[in-house]
Amino acid sequence: MLHIPKSLPLSRACMSSSSVRASRIDVVVAARPPRSSFASSRRQRRRRRVVASSSSNKSSNSLLLLRGKKTTAAMRFSGRAAALATPDDDDDDDDDVLLPYEKCSRLLLSTASSPTRGGVAMPRHPTQNVRDVVAIALEEDVADVGDVSSLSTIPEDARATATLLAKADGILAGERVANEVLSMVDGDIEACWLKRDGDDIEKGEIFCYMRGSARGILRAERVVLNFMQRMSGIATLTKKMSERAKPARILETRKTAPGLRVIDKWAVLIGGGENHRMGLFDMVMIKDNHVAAARGIKNALESSTKFLIEGGEKYTGVMIELETRTMEEVKEVCGLLEDADTDTSRVQRVMLDNMSMEDMREAAGMLNRLGVETEASGNVTLDTIGGIGATGVTFISSGQLTHSVVALDISLNIENNE
Fold first, then answer.
1. Which position among 89, 95, 220, 385 has the lowest Cβ density within 10 Å, counted as fewest Cβ atoms?
2. Angle between helices 130-142 and 214-245 (to 10 degrees)
3. What does the angle CA 312 – CA 317 – CA 319 come to, to the nearest 5 degrees?
4. Active-site residue 222, yes or no?
5. Which CA distances in Å does 152 have to 137, 141, 215, 220, 367?
6. Residue 119's pLDDT band (cuts 50, 70, 90)
7. Is the CB of residue 217 less than 8 Å from the CB of residue 160?
C-alpha cells in the first residue's frame, strides 16, 4: 500500500511499494474511502464515471488520489479518466490487500475546479490531423480481420489494468496521441496520466495507468507505443539540442517520416524546439537547385516575389528564405537587400549552409544589421551546436531531430485482470 505521510513537502512526494513516482505532487488531507465502496459492479463503476475529452487541445485536468491511512496524495492527471464519488470515512484496516488497479485508477475524484495546465498545441496542417493518422495506424495493424491473438485467447468481457513504464530517461511526448488511439479503439478505456507531454520521465517510472477491456488495451498497445516512443525520442533530443543551442533557437526540417509530418513536428514543439515550414506550401525556400535552374539568386528572388504578390490572398503571409553556401553568396544577398530597386519585402530569412564558424559569425553580423533572420544548417550535432549558437544566428536547423530518431524505450504491461 502507498503511504504518504503529512510531513512530506507539498511540492513532491515519493510513492513506496509500487514504484509509482511523479513530480508536481500536492498533498491534501481528504476523507479516505472505505473498502466497501469499491465492491460495486461494473455497471455502478461506469455510472459514476466522468469521461474527459482526450482530443481537445486544452485537455482537462483533475486530481488522482493515492490513498494512505491518514492522508491522500493528489496528482494532476488528464485523459479519459474516471471520477468516483467520495464515500464516508471508516474502516482503517483495509489497506493491506490492494491491487495495482485499486492503488491508482479507482480512486479518481471529480475536481472540475482544479487548476489546469495546457499542453503544447498540435501544429496546424491544412489537410492532416491526428485522428486520420491514428486511423491509418490502427487499420494497418488489424486490417479487416482483427487482433486474432487477443480474440483467440481473451474472453470478450475480460477487463484489465495496465501501466506504461519508462525504460530509459527522457522527455514524455505523445500523451494526447495515445488518448486518441485509446478512444478510437474503445471509448470505455480510461487512462490516468501521472506525467504530461513535455515532462521528464525516468527509467523505471510508471507514468500512466489505464483500465478497460483487455482486448481493447492489447489492440491499442503497439500503436500507442509506436507513437509515444518515436515522439518521446524526438522530444528528448530536441530538449538537449535546444538547451545547448541558446541563445539560438532550434528548428527541425521536412526530413520527417512519410505520413507523420504533423506528429514529428509536434514532438519537436513538446521538446522545446520550434517548427520550420510545415511543407512546400507555407514558405518559399530558394535553395541551390532553384538558383541553378533560375540562373542566379537575383532572378530566383525577383521571380518568387512577383509570383507571391500576383497570387494575392492565396499567398498572404508566405515569406521567402534564401540559402547561401559561401561568403560571396552572402554578400550578394546583402547587396540585394540594400538595393532600393529590388523588392525584398518578402525576404524573411537567410540560410547559412555548411559554413565554417568564422564565416557564420561574419555572415550573421552582416545580415542581422539588415534586419533579416539567419539560420545555420549543416554539421549540426550535440557537440557542435553550442558553438554554432554562439555565432549570433537566429535559428539552427537539424534534420537529425526527425530523420535519425532514437526511440525512447517504453513498455505497456498488463498488471492484473479485474
1. 89
2. 130
3. 105
4. yes
5. 22, 16, 10, 16, 65
6. confident
7. yes
Q: In this structure, which amino acid lies at residue 48?
A: R
Please identify which of the residues 287, 362, 409, 418 carries the catalytic annotation: 287
- Cis amide bond preceding 247, omega within 30: yes
**Among this protein's residues, is 239 annotated catalytic?**
no
313 part of the active site: no
As a whole number of angstroms, the distance between CA 95 and CA 34 comes to 10
Q: Which of 147, 353, 373, 415 is catalytic?
A: 353
Q: Can you tell me the mean pLDDT for 174-181?
A: 96
Instruction: Answer yes or no: is pLDDT of 327 > 80.
Output: yes
The active-site residue out of 45, 49, 167, 255 is 255
Cell, residue 373: 533572420
pLDDT digits (tens, 9 = 90+) for 186-238: 999 999 999 999 999 999 999 999 999 999 999 999 999 999 999 999 999 99
| pLDDT at position 418 | 58
Q: Which residues of 65-81 are buried (b: 16+ CB within 10 A; e: fewer)?
A: bbbbeebbbbbbbbbbb
CA–CA dist 238, 157 (Å, integer):
42
- What are the C-alpha distances in Å from 294 to residues 55, 99, 299, 348? 45, 69, 6, 20
pLDDT at 118: 61
> What would the mean pLDDT of 370-380 be, rounded to a whole number?
96
Q: Can you say whether the dihedral through the CA atoms of 122, 123, 129, 130 is positive or negative?
A: negative
Q: How many CB atoms lie within 10 A of CB 326?
A: 14
Task: For residue 282, indicate whether it is catalytic.
Answer: no
Quick check: is 314 catalytic? no
What is the biggest distance separating any 2 CA atoms in the chain, rounded to whole angstroms? 86
Query: What's the rounded Cα separation, in Å, for the pair 336 and 326?
Result: 16
At residue 18's C-alpha, the angle toward residues 411 and 71, to 5°, is 135
Report residue 187 as a C-alpha cell. Answer: 471509448
As a whole number of angstroms, the distance between CA 274 and CA 248 comes to 11
Instruction: Look up residue 80 and give its three cell numbers.
Output: 479519459
Do residues 374 and 352 touch, judged by C-beta distance below 8 A? yes
pLDDT of residue 18: 32
